[in-house]
Amino acid sequence: MKLKTLVAAIGMTFALSVQASELPVIDAVLTSPPMVPPPISRDHAAKVVVKMETVEKVMEIADGVEYMFWTFGGSVPGQFLRIREGDEVEFHLSNHPSSKMPHNIDLHAVNGPGGGAAASFTAPGHTSVFNFKALHPGLYVYHCATAPVGMHIANGMYGLVLVEPKEGLPKVDKEYYVMQGDFYTKGAYGEQGFQAFDMDKAIKEDADYVLFNGAVGALTGDKALTANVGETVRLFMGNGGPNLASSFHVIGEIFDKVNVEAGTLENHNVQTSLIPAGGAITAEFKVDVPGNFIMVDHSIFRAFNKGALGMINVDGPEDKVIYSGKVSETVYLPEGSAVQSIPNNRPKQAASSKEDQMLYGKRVYEANCQACHQADGKGIPGAFPPLAKSDFLNDDPTRAIDVVVHGLKGPIKVNGAAFDSIMPAMALSDEDTANVLTYVLNTWDNNGTVVSPKEVKKRRDSGKPLVMEGSAH
Ligand SMILES: [Cu+2]
Predict the structure, then answer these.
(1) Positive or negative, the Cα torsion across 321, 323, 328, 330?
(2) Cytochrome c domain: from which residue to which, for each copy (predicted)?
(3) 196 and 283 housed in the same domain
């Protein structure tokens, strides 16, 4: 009763100001990724006023790498808009006065020429207004469609608009907004400093970065998505492109339900869902056990070498029946196995001070060592020896150069604990090797040795793989 009266009152108030429509007027709630506006509780259509701004701004695309993004609302992807089937939208697009380019918006939720593109074409320092009615429920991509269209999209100008069906969406515990995009920079992946857009690479579809939410690490570490065991999660997952389709997968999860291409067709028990450029899906799943669930584009080099990787941290009690964890581990080294090498083509870092060496070395560590030796340098008992306060390391830093450059195998003792395994030779430049060892030796209570690229070069020329005594292999 109360709610109805209130709704009627709102309707009357606004009927005065908006003669054309009987509908109550409300302001849209817009959110930046990965957040989603709350579910719509209205049981009737409204006139929804949307105020969105295009902004061109420099942001980090990766640690130490800057890029000039063009955005809807200051983020990549742009702000999430949530409306209801039958709503009439009054869309105000403002282009910030500091912009160098005109911009517009093509919403795939619009029935009309260009999806609103021509009507919303806006020069810097201007605002355009147009109206549309949301006839079809679904999750729709919006993007800039100003020439050269590919360039505006490649610079990050896309986002999602959700048109909830009249009956609403089933209730879930968590909703998140993620969008993939491919990026083309003058420098290679990870090359430091400001990187300009590269049109040639974009035309060749030769992406340097493939990203979730506009940056390497936008959804990892303390920016990971979160959920609790037993909760249901709904991902509104879009693909801005401009070029690449996404093979979207969550490692260790199965989607209970996917709205294929974000339409009304439901698929169930899905491992990997295709999301076309300029398309979307909604994926729902219940999280059954705790842990880190990694979102990837399963075109997998994109995940591990171009940035298409995000995380969902699930908290709560274990269920050993659903997932036991490792129940045993023994070393398996077949006859004839040899030290292999992991290639690496990261750009080399020329450091001019110990501080620089530490900074670059930390990045090399995160990219090349951390998977085995762990972020805290403590390793994993029985598998990877500690580098933190390691007597093996501190006794002979020159030997550590050999370990990284040439690899190591056979039984060793580190701080009293025995290891008998293989460390592959790391194909790092002399600079990267010097930096990472300087970082390691000056962190976690180690002895403070500084390693120079020259010393590394010397060991590269004169050293060889370390096969420790007593090795049966
Ligand atoms: Cu634009």
Answers:
(1) positive
(2) 356-444
(3) yes
- C-alpha 302 to ligand 1 mean position (Å): 26
CA–centroid distance, residue 20 to ligand 1 (Å) = 31
DSSP E strands in 255-306: the ranges are: 255-259, 266-270, 272-275, 279-286, 291-297
Say whether both 38 and 140 belong to one domain: yes
pLDDT recorded at residue 6: 45
Judged against a pLDDT cut of 80, whether residue 342 lies above it is answered with no
Per-residue pLDDT tens digits for 440-467: 999 999 999 999 999 999 999 988 888 8
| Whole-number pLDDT of residue 70 | 97
Structural domain includes residue 19: no
Is 108 annotated to bind a ligand? Reply is yes
CATH number at residue 67: 2.60.40.420
What are the structure tokens assigned to 403, written together? Answer: 């370990």
Amino acid, single-letter form, for residue 20: A
CB 405 within 8 A of CB 455: no
Cα–Cα distance, 262 to 109 (Å, whole number): 12
pLDDT value of position 345: 53
Tell me the C-alpha distance between 144 and 29, whole Å. Answer: 20
Domain residues for 65?
25-169
**Per-residue pLDDT tens over the stretch 212-267:** 999 999 999 899 999 999 999 999 999 999 999 999 999 999 999 999 999 999 99
Strand locations in 43-157, DSSP E?
47-62, 65-72, 80-84, 88-95, 106-107, 127-133, 138-143
Q: Same domain, yes or no, for 296 and 406?
A: no
* Whole-prediction pTM: 0.68
Q: Are 163 and 295 in contact (CB under 8 A)?
A: no
